[in-house]
Input
Amino acid sequence: MKRFVRVALALASVSTVAPAIAPTVAYAQVNAGEQKPDASVPFTMTQVATFNLPWRIAFLPDGRLLITEKVGPLWLVTQAGVKTPVANVPAVLAQGQGGMLGVYLSPNYAKDHHVYLTYSEPGDPSGSSLALAMATLSITDGAASLDDLRVIWRDGARGRGGQFGAAVAFSPDKKFLFLSVGDRQRMTPAQDPNSPLGKILRLTLDGKPAPGNPQAGTTGSATLDIINPPRDTELAKTAAVVHSYTFPGPNLTPSETWASGFRTPYGLAFAPDGRLWEVEHGPRGGDELNLVEVGKNYGWPFVSYAVNYNRVPIPSPDTRADLVKPVIYWTPVIAPGNLTFYTGKMFSQWNGSALIGGLASRTVNRITFDGKGGAATAERWDVGHQIRDIAVAPDGALWMIENTTTGGLFRVTPK
Output
């Protein structure tokens, strides 16, 4: 049953860490959900290969691609579309929203040849945990493999539920790894200080809690009134059953946590100016673009510019000054697949802007930034495909993958 939550949260001795950049300026929130697609598309999409539910792209320095399929495989792919299976991938639970998810190159790949994978690791007979693994990529003539693979972080939640998040971004100084962890469709853990679910984590490159995180060594507890709406849609508009629940405390709070209150954080990326941005799915409405800042709470499931799936309203973010509002939101949704900042020569007019693929809207959306923490929508192009990921090749071309069982891999160049 979907649950709506109100909370009173108490944290003792919570230290703060000053962000590396200036605090954001307050902006009016923008609903981009009603934006109409542009009349024409300024690029050509050329399909070069087909995959079964492809999820993420990572470019090697020589221009070849690593591509995950949610059903399990990892592929090494040439720009001509020749596919080589990568051996020694870990087992995944490819079920519902889970499976083989992200693939990311180490920021020091030229020296260490490390790659990172995020995936749903099988647990009990019907469940899984989000896992982050690191391995060395070995490539020989006609073969590729992951060597010395080891899991360096697990969410520990196990059990059922999707909304894994599973996006990785490396800090500009190449010292830290940021990992987005979804709420696993359980809602309340996003506000539990003792749970990693619904959080953005800051880790060392080997998966340990990064020094200087805001909750390291603190204690906390949380008391919540959980409103369980009746299953009947009409009754749910007027009736609810309230149960009080207290998360265990005082316990040591997770020292990995950087920010909290996220639902389905599928996109995570640093802008050229060093700011960290995140995109996530809302329920019935309320997809969000958020500027992620240390120690902040982004509100899920307390608030959203949306309603629950059973149509029970959720309080607006405008009612909670203590929670961070999204910079841009989408109602109706676009269902963002990922977030990519463009830097290159082929589309030089887009340098510094971000591209978001829309799964539900079948669009590519360009976002511009003012360098002060504000963002605005630019073009929205109808491409006729559920775009799961967009990546920038070394030559500046864009590459996109399609979220279907016969999903295309497209090279995208200017018209």
Q: What stands out?
A: The radius of gyration is 21 Å. Residues 1-22, 221-251 have pLDDT under 50 and may be disordered. The longest strand covers residues 128-140.
